[in-house]
Design brief:
2 domains; five-stranded mixed beta sheet; three-stranded antiparallel beta sheet; about 45% helix; globular; signal
Amino acid sequence: MKTIKMAIYIMLALFLSGMASCGSEDSINPMPELGNPPFDLPRGEEGSLEELIYSVYEKYGSFVLYDFDQTEFYTTWNGRTVYWYAPVKSGSEAYVRQIVTFMQEKVFAGYPEAFIAKFLPKKIYLVDSICKTSSYNKSNLVNTLVTNNHGLAVSNVGVKMESFTDSDWDSMNSGIVTAIMNNIYNTMEVPDEFFALVTYLVIYMFDEEENADPEGEFDAYHYVLYTNGFVGANAFIDYGFFMPHKYGEDLGDYLSFLMSTPKSEMDRIFARFDIVKQRAFLIADFIVKKMEMDPIALQNSFCPNDPLPAGYFDKE
């Protein structure tokens, strides 16, 4: 019976892995010299949708567009493929407000403001639906998509949101975050050693008894996760396995970990799992040298009650 269960888990993992790989998209290639696109955003009256959209621009420098000319969406800087899409339906302002509020309060709020302001695509297109191909095909519909004109399309803005489950909102959150992280992964040179330190198996199994933390500090899932050098994964706790995030998503996990983890928790993990510490220090150096940001300042802004001290990531 145990052999049969193992086979089922592996087949499920391979199926899910295949689905994930089919959904990957090209990255945004930021071109600072292009500057901001020439949109005239009204500030709007207090409490209006226009004011809400303007607040995104004011805080992060990005334009949220839901009623835009088709030629603007199809204009690309590199002449590559355009995508089939259906615009937000007339009278959907309430749904636009809901998705913009969701991005501000749930997605962007999960990271330091300076980080989002630097790496969020400058144009965020809200659409009813969009395909990852130039012609319509139901199987090619996606929730989020990085466009070739340095933007991000967010789909399903409309009546479909009324039936969204927590899983749907989580998927939307993940899609937007992945677009930001893949932008970094695909446009900057990440240290090879960061990836070489781990083995990207399709799945890792864990058992609450067989893989119990000998010191009783972490549950079996986190003990196996950290032991193998990861800080994030697609976890199937009830089935006793997880699928590690790879490459761009793995990098994104570490960026999130470094920016949002309180010092006491970081100390606790580093003291037990040297491989996590090694990888974290490599990405802290990457943040300084490639992203041109200060990991200490980013963490301090997000964890003011348990900040990292200056020099925390200095090599010992």
